[in-house]
């Protein structure tokens, strides 16, 4: 196991926990509760080890003008704001360090001479974790069956590790769909295709069951990007009606009860957005530091990455955050990746296709959830994706993979 893999597992180890669990009444309730409380410190340990490595190696800062670097600048500004403006400095700094930890690991990774292959392994590690969590949730999903779970339902993670709302479970299902369908489509070996199909079918089932509008819309975005990446194929024409029916059945019939008004209903989010804007107006240039939404909005969640970035880092922080997303897409467009991926052969092709589709999903999701604006699953998914895209382009600057070059 490499240092980066070890650190990345530690960062994941802090997921679905927090310093709110470091209470004697909770910790003493069971051995699992004690473990669940202590693991909230794992990302901090990972950040400390990363800093020691960076200082010991005197590693140069490799994130300048890189999508990952803009996330780093957003984080540093948030740390400063957490010191200066947060109503609860300790809580803000805790979540700021958690946000910083995967970015420091990227610093280590990009300083490696074999950074591209290492980040490829990190992407596959992420996929393994997503699949493992989804498999743990399958028994609960199968227990209820189709269309019988509210979109507000909380799925229980195993071993008392926490809970996840249907919308979050839909994200895990869609990532598994993107992965399994891409590998199924590109793999020629029959037994391997069967294994990917065995993952694809239950992932589609779980996605439909969650009735998650952001995940279902993400499915449509990923489908459009797949068309763009591979061109018009007969197999896509056959699958598209099935995907459209899945979106219609889960999103419109089950979630919205056949009502357009219910499908488009976002009044709860609008109320939170208005309250967020009121707080931003009080510190519009620099914001209030990390975790400001929970501290200033009665523990509410902003449900919009850009407003979330604004309450954290003000206008300046939002610019850094927005540049992280836009620079990743600029990288794709400038280097004609959507066209080049068609002609690439080998293990890079599925990883590139999946990375583009995941970036599309995360970009769509950023308008309705706080994607990557704070420490969470989305951040651990998005940061390696944009880092991989940057590193691949840096290592393949010319279109030597196109038919014309051949």
What does this protein structure show overall?
This protein is mainly alpha-helical and 406 residues long. The protein has one domain. 71% of the residues lie in helices and 1% in strands. It contains 18 helices and 2 strands. Helix 4 (42-57) packs across helix 6 (89-110) and helix 7 (115-144) packs across helix 8 (166-186).
- Averaged pLDDT, please? 90
Low-confidence stretches: none
Number of strands: 2
Which term fits the overall shape? globular
Strand residue percentage? under 5%
Question: In this structure, how is the largest beta sheet organized?
Answer: 2 strands, antiparallel
The helix content, as a percent range, equals over 70%
H/E series, N to C?
Answer: HHHHHHHEEHHHHHHHHHHH
Radius of gyration computed on alpha carbons:
21 Å
Overall structural domain count: 1
């Amino acid at each position: 196991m490499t240092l980066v893999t070890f650190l990345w597992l530690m960062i994941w180890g802090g997921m679905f926990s927090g310093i709110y669990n470091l209470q004697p009444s909770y910790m003493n309730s069971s051995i699992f509760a004690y473990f669940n409380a202590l693991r909230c410190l794992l990302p901090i340990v990972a950040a400390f080890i990363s800093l020691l490595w960076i200082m010991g190696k005197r590693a140069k800062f490799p994130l300048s003008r890189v999508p990952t670097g803009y996330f780093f600048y957003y984080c540093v500004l948030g740390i400063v704001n957490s010191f200066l403006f947060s109503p609860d400095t300790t809580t803000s700094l805790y979540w700021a360090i958690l946000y910083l930890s995967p970015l420091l690991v990227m610093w280590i990774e990009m300083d490696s001479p074999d950074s591209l292959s290492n980040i490829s392994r990190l992407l596959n590690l992420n996929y393994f974790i997503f699949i493992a969590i989804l498999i743990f949730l399958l028994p609960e999903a199968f227990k209820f069956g189709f269309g019988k779970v509210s979109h507000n339902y909380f799925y229980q993670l195993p071993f008392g590790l926490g809970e996840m709302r249907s919308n979050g479970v839909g994200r895990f299902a869609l990532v598994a769909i993107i992965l399994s369908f891409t590998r199924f489509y590109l793999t020629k070996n029959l037994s391997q295709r069967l294994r990917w199909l065995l993952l694809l079918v239950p992932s589609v089932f779980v996605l439909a069951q969650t009735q998650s509008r952001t995940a279902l819309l993400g499915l449509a975005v990923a489908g459009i990007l797949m068309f763009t990446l591979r061109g018009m194929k007969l197999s896509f024409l056959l699958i598209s009606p099935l995907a459209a029916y899945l979106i219609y059945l889960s999103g419109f019939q089950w979630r919205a009860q056949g009502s357009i008004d219910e499908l488009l209903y976002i009044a709860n989010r609008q109320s939170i957005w208005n309250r967020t804007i009121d707080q931003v107006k009080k510190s519009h240039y620099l914001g209030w530091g990390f975790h400001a939404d929970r501290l200033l909005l009665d523990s509410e969640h902003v449900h919009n990455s850009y407003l979330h970035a604004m309450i954290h880092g003000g206008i300046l922080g939002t610019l850094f955050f927005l540049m992280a997303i836009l620079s990743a897409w600029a990288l794709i467009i400038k280097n004609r990746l959507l066209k080049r991926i068609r002609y690439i052969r080998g293990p890079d092709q599925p990883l590139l296709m999946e990375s583009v589709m995941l970036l599309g999903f995360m970009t769509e999701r950023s308008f309705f959830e706080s994607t990557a604006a704070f420490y969470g699953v989305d951040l651990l998914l998005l940061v390696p994706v944009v880092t991989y895209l940057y590193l691949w382009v840096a290592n393949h600057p010319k279109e030597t993979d196109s038919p014309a070059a051949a």
